Automatic annotation (TrEMBL):
Function noted in UniProt: Involved in targeting and insertion of nascent membrane proteins into the cytoplasmic membrane. Binds to the hydrophobic signal sequence of the ribosome-nascent chain (RNC) as it emerges from the ribosomes. The SRP-RNC complex is then targeted to the cytoplasmic membrane where it interacts with the SRP receptor FtsY. Interaction with FtsY leads to the transfer of the RNC complex to the Sec translocase for insertion into the membrane, the hydrolysis of GTP by both Ffh and FtsY, and the dissociation of the SRP-FtsY complex into the individual components.
Record organism: Limimaricola soesokkakensis
Known partners and oligomeric status: Part of the signal recognition particle protein translocation system, which is composed of SRP and FtsY. SRP is a ribonucleoprotein composed of Ffh and a 4.5S RNA molecule.
EC number(s) on file: 3.6.5.4
Classification lineage: Bacteria, Pseudomonadati, Pseudomonadota, Alphaproteobacteria, Rhodobacterales
Protein name as annotated: Signal recognition particle protein
Membrane topology, from the record: Peripheral membrane protein
Gene: ffh
Domain remark in the UniProt entry: Composed of three domains: the N-terminal N domain, which is responsible for interactions with the ribosome, the central G domain, which binds GTP, and the C-terminal M domain, which binds the RNA and the signal sequence of the RNC.
Cytoplasm found in the keyword field: yes
Record's subcellular location: Cell inner membrane; Cytoplasm
Length: 297
């Protein structure tokens, strides 16, 4: 679907005859291609621009290693810079869940994959770390969302807090906390309400829940295919609620994952996991190398 960056660059450098060191012009020409590749990978314009400027500074005047072509060399510089920006946490998959019961707050827009991701993480914590997990849906406006979590819980063998109609999100969160303490759970996960767009009520509700339980982790779930939108959502949630990490879903899709780069550059928040499908096992710890390779194509 996309021409890879290496292919683009070898074309560019075939036309150039410079030897010895990468000249200003070589680098500028190459970086135009890099910029296009980033934009095609859904990196936001301002981030692509800044990124290219940073690479330009690093690349200009660098001696060309004998064993590789100038094109390959620029690709390597770009790749290394991508990995450096994308790396946010030495151990992104390690959740802070000491001192049980540890609350994990899941936030994000409706349709981002929040409920699915809550269940995926619960399954992972149960199977890989032997944790006892309790899940609770706080989406009081959408009974179907509450039922969805219950169904997923049954499917993966993880307990959910019994649904009580008419309770507000803070009351549910407190009940989850009590139930988690009394029931000897290690972790309780709160799947907050999602909306199609961020609004004051959504933020106020998530903030009230946060204040009621003081989460050990607040994980923002965003659709990895939404590019610039994903970044705006992350900025807003982080400003208003405070986020300890980001989970990018739908990274199994056709997109090239540029949202990951924009996300890191703009919010500075670590990306902790990526969602890779609808199945309950389709989640992996974030790996900068892998996403860098994908962005470059
Ligand atoms: P919520 O409204 O944010 O809670 O979103 P849901 O968890 O209900 O997910 C919405 C849809 O996206 C469902 O059909 C999920 O199966 C699907 N989904 C969630 N995560 C992924 C993912 O990583 N990849 C793909 N392909 N689909 C996903």
């Amino acid at each position: 679907m996309f021409e890879s960056l290496s292919d683009r660059l070898s074309g560019v450098f075939d036309r150039l005859t410079k030897q010895g060191a990468l000249s200003d012009e070589d680098v500028r020409t190459a970086l135009r291609e890099v910029r296009v590749a980033l934009l095609e990978a859904d990196v936001s314009l301002s981030v692509a621009r800044d990124f290219v400027a940073a690479v330009q500074e690093k690349a200009t005047g660098q001696a060309v290693t004998k064993s590789i072509t100038p094109g390959q060399q620029v690709v390597k510089i770009v790749h290394d810079e991508l990995v450096s920006v994308l790396t946010g946490d030495s151990d992104p998959g390690k959740l802070k869940i000491d001192s049980p019961p540890a609350p994990i707050l899941m936030v994000g827009l409706q349709g981002s994959g929040k409920t699915t991701t809550t269940a995926k993480l619960a399954k992972r914590l149960t199977e890989r770390e032997g944790k006892r997990v309790l899940m609770a849906s706080l989406d009081v406006n959408r009974p179907a969302a509450m039922e969805q979590l219950e169904i997923l819980g049954r499917q993966i063998g993880v307990d959910t807090l019994p649904i009580v109609r008419g309770e507000d999100p803070v009351a549910i969160a407190k009940r989850a906390k009590t139930q988690a303490s009394l029931g000897g759970y290690d972790v309780y996960m709160l799947d907050t309400a999602g909306r199609l767009h961020i609004d004051q009520e959504l933020i106020a509700q998530a903030a009230a829940v946060r204040d009621a339980v003081t989460p050990r982790e607040t994980l923002l779930v965003v659709d990895g295919l939404t590019g610039q939108d994903a970044v705006n959502v992350a900025t807003e949630f982080d400003d208003k609620i405070g986020v300890s990490g980001v989970i990018l879903t739908r990274m199994d899709g056709d997109g090239r994952g540029g949202a990951a780069l924009s996300m890191r550059k703009v919010t500075g928040k670590p990306i902790r996991f990526v969602g890779l499908g609808e199945k309950m096992d389709a989640i992996e710890t974030f790996e900068a190398e892998r996403i860098a390779g994908r962005i470059l194509g």
